[in-house]
Amino acid sequence: MLKEIADSNSNFLSIRKEKLLYIDKTSFIKKFELLKKSVSLFLRPRRFGKTLFTEILYYYYDIAQKGLFDKLFEGTYIHENTTPYKSSYAVVKFDFSGVSTSGSVDDILEDVRIRVIQAIVDFFKRYPDLIPDDIREYATDKSNLQASVAKFYFEKRDYFNSCSRILNHFLLFFQAQSKVDYKLMFIIDEYDNFTNDILSRDKKAFIDIANKQSELGAFYGTIRNFNQYGVIEKVFITGILPITMDTMISGFVSSKISQEPILNELAGFTDSEVLELLHETVDFNQCKYPATYLQEFMKERFNGYKFAKHSKDKVYNSTLCLNFVNTLKTDYDSLPEMGISSNMDVNFDKLVGYLNLLSKQDRDSILKSIIDEVPLRFSIPDSIKLDNVANNLAYTDGLAMLFYLGFLTIISNEEAKLDYGDSYVSAIYLKVPNLYFKILFGKFITDSANISWGGLVNQSNNVVLMEKQNNLEGLIEAFKLHVQQALVKADITHESEALFVVSFFLMISMNTKAFHLQREYSIKQNDVVVSDCAYELSKSKVGKHKRADLVAINKEGGPSYLFEFKYQRNENSSLETKEKVRAKLLNDAKEQIKFYQTDDKLKTIKDLHKYVIMYTYDELTVQEV
Fold it and tell me: 466: buried, middle or exposed (CB in 10 Å: 19+, 13-18, 0-12)?
């Protein structure tokens, strides 16, 4: 019987009780314990399944949930491979995922205080015998002590006016009670969800709320102190960026376990897990696409994430995969659209806000490499701090932000060597992980240039002609209509060149699923990369051995394409000079295409059409060669 996929509001308890789809991640409990960390900060992009794993930890470790173990974990790895720490902690679970950021700093902190109180109230509901004496004495209804906990903290708010004071009161009780036999474990989910939102739009407000002397800094300082005293034995924190923690309380989290190779696949789906998802939820008697086809389609769009240099596997964004399958199940005869931004809460206003934390020079350098699909050399910084409004983040910190947010990912040694040659093996490099984010960055670029997104994505009829008949006429006319004017207005040459190629790439990628598209295609001969990277080209001015601008390989047997783009702007040139330049650019493009055709894969494609597309002196020309 096929399983249903849980909605975004479901938790581990409801998923298991209602027998909904569950991809088993419980083996990572044992791997987590192998690291032997008293404080762990686990960072992943939004919507990767971090919250679900915190719930798994809660139900596995909390003493009060011991009776649910068989019901919740039957059939999972950990059910047959328990650890000595199973059901051995009194767990306090904080959830900061829903903290509102719409008000003032004081309003935000009041919401945090409420959530701290809610966590303590929930704890005493499970452990009523541990309610402190001062709360018992304060209670008016001795038969309902749990209800008095929240009342105690709220009505004494003149004293409990900060989350650190509330927490300090709670922990001092445990420290003073020798009779209390329980070991405490703190689980903090989405610790920085609200601070990241503030960071993206108001640097001063972020520093006000996340510094050593702030209420939030004092809250985590309290956790650090009681962890060092041995009152809190384990702390597990999830989030997206390290910057909030590093700015508030340096050295508290000595181990950001996010880059541990054994935890690379903790969040997100592996290849085998995607196949499991498909076979458990899709009715292949009705679906016209086989599981292997769907997996390859999803891999190109949602896979590619690698969070540790030496990890073996890449992972898919789990939420995008689940949303894709849910949509597929409503219509088995067509593949779902990619759903730009709607499924990921991707907000480019926030991205701009993050990038504006860098200097303009560093920001432009990073964006140009992303646009040109050039790998970015990277080293993971020990910490990222922002403690002065006047300061910009360093270049490496900016890369780290994009990495932690999921906009960039680590290239493996094998992939670096395969796609970029031996020179890329020795260091860590980053790239855009998949087609989904290539399109998102493309949309960001076209929006910035005031190119109509609707004009690019509503070209399905013209792209069908391209995929079936080698007919580019309609696509080129649409390109002239929607893109050419933006190229005329663009001031900077490299931005114009990027718009030229990216816009064409988007027109194809957003209107058909028939092509495997690749920009900056590396040429291989006998499995060896022989094309130079864009960085080396810019240094040496090599033309012949550059990478192909755009390759579109038809997965359905129709015509495939190899595109070479040429760009030239200088309106003041004479007519004779313009003609000479056009002739030279065309000849260079033809020579480059000859070289590209020596590629191991391209030379085997019988129906491969080669085009030179030139934008010279505000005029677009297209020639098949």
Answer: buried
Provide the b/e sequence for 505-537 (b: ≥16 CB within 10 Å).
bbbbbbbbbbbebbbbbbbbeeeebebbbbebb
Measured CA to CA, the distance from residue 406 to residue 305 in angstroms comes to 8
Sign of CA dihedral 600, 603, 606, 609: positive
Do 177 and 291 belong together in one domain? no
Report residue 393: phi and psi, to 5°.
Answer: -70, 150
Question: Rounded to an integer, what distance in angstroms lies between the CA atom of residue 437 and that of residue 451?
Answer: 18
| Judgement on whether residues 238 and 281 belong to the same structural domain of the protein | no
10-residue mean pLDDT series, the chain (625 residues): 86 94 97 93 92 97 97 97 96 96 92 95 92 85 78 87 94 78 93 94 92 93 93 95 89 77 95 97 96 94 90 90 94 78 55 85 83 80 82 90 92 67 68 84 78 85 94 92 76 65 87 86 87 44 66 93 89 86 94 94 96 90 95
Structural domains counted in the chain: 3
Tell me the residue ranges of DSSP E strands in 533-618: 548-554, 560-568, 608-616
Query: Is the Cα dihedral 121, 122, 125, 131 positive or negative?
Result: negative
444: tokens are 């960001």
**pLDDT for the residue numbered 417:** 65
Closest Cα partner for 44 from 235, 247, 193?
Answer: 193
429 forms beta bridges with: 377
Check whether residue 197 and residue 323 sit in a common domain: no
CATH number of the domain enclosing 220: 3.40.50
Residues 289 and 240 in one domain: no
pLDDT of 545: 56
Q: What torsion, rounded to 10 degrees, do the Cα atoms 18, 24, 27, 32 define?
A: -80
Residues 168 and 245 in one domain: yes
Query: What's residue 437's pLDDT?
Result: 82
Q: Tell whether 521 is covered by a domain.
A: yes
- Dig out the tokens for 416 from the structure: 């670096």
Name the one residue in this structure whose structure tokens are 């493009």.
589
- 589 with 566: CB under 8 angstroms? yes
Same domain, 457 and 529: yes
pLDDT tens digits, 438-477: 877 777 778 777 888 888 888 989 999 999 999 999 999 9
495: DSSP letter:
H
Residue 187 sits at φ, ψ, to 5 deg, of: -120, 120
